[in-house]
Amino acid sequence: MTSDAPDPSGSARVRRAWRLAAGVLVLALGFGAWGAWRALAPAPGDVRDRLEQSERLARRQQAQIEQLRQQVATLGRSDQISREANRDLQSSLAEREEEIAALRADVAFYERLVGSTAQRRGLNVHALKMQPQNETAWHFAATLTQNLNRGAVSVGQLTLQIEGTRGGRLRTLSWSDLRQQANAPGVPYSFKYFQQVEGDVYLPAGFVPARVTARLVPRRGAAVEQSFTWAEATRDVAPATAAR
Questions:
Q1: What is the pTM of this model?
Q2: Which top-level group of life is the source organism from (predicted)?
């Protein structure tokens, strides 16, 4: 006779089998995760090597940057020195050209004065230049010449007279006015062929000069006068200064 009652021992075996299978599955999953982590995670030695490589690369790049900065600074300084040297050279050339032009003018002046074809002239004011010293004082330089009596010495005095306007009215300043001294003596000269005579004069405030006349009073003979416009006398002076 067959019994239909369940077998307790069979059910227990089935449960134990399921627990064992679950445990094996958990262990398998754990070992798989651990293996994947070991495979993907970098080794401690690799991390240190990478850090050291990065640091060495950073140091090399910084050294290259410093080297390039030094090269840029050196090139910039070289360019500045070249520019300064070029400016100095251009300035020197300009000065030499001015000296050459002045020497040529002097040679031409001497040839006209003492050359074999020079025109014979008596006592003469060859040139007159006025240079400002301050608001009222002016320095003058008069070039006196003569080649009519070769070997003879011209001796005398030079005075100036300046015509202009003040307060809208014409006015003429005598030598005593210009020197601010009553009965002021003239500037002496003594030469054979030429001489440059210099001195200072003073213009009153508000006076606008228009013409300057140089008067030569030789020890012997008649006086000589020669006039120059103020523009001629101040030709090498800045316009704003010459118009004082």
A1: 0.53
A2: Bacteria
Indicate if the alpha-carbon torsion angle 235, 240, 241, 244 is positive or negative: positive
Structure confidence by residue, pLDDT tens digits, 49-104: 778 888 888 888 888 888 888 888 888 888 888 888 888 888 888 888 887 876 67
Q: Is residue 31 part of a domain?
A: no
Alpha helices (runs of H) in the chain, residue ranges in sequence order: 8-40, 44-114, 175-179, 230-233, 239-242
**Are residues 218 and 184 part of one domain?**
yes
Find out whether 212 and 233 touch, Cβ atoms under 8 Å. Answer: yes
The number of residues making up the chain comes to 244
CB-based burial, 37-50: b 16+ in 10 Å, e otherwise = eeeeeeeeeeeeee
Name 190's bridge partners: 155
Q: Do 145 and 236 belong together in one domain?
A: yes
Count of structural domains, the chain: 2
* Distance from C-alpha of 198 to C-alpha of 143, rounded to nearest angstrom: 9
The residue written with tokens 């006196």 in the block is 144
Report residue 190: phi and psi, to 5°.
Answer: -160, 115
Question: Letter for the amino acid at 143?
Answer: T
Same domain, 134 and 235: yes
Same domain, 105 and 212: no
Domain span at residue 160 reads: 124-242
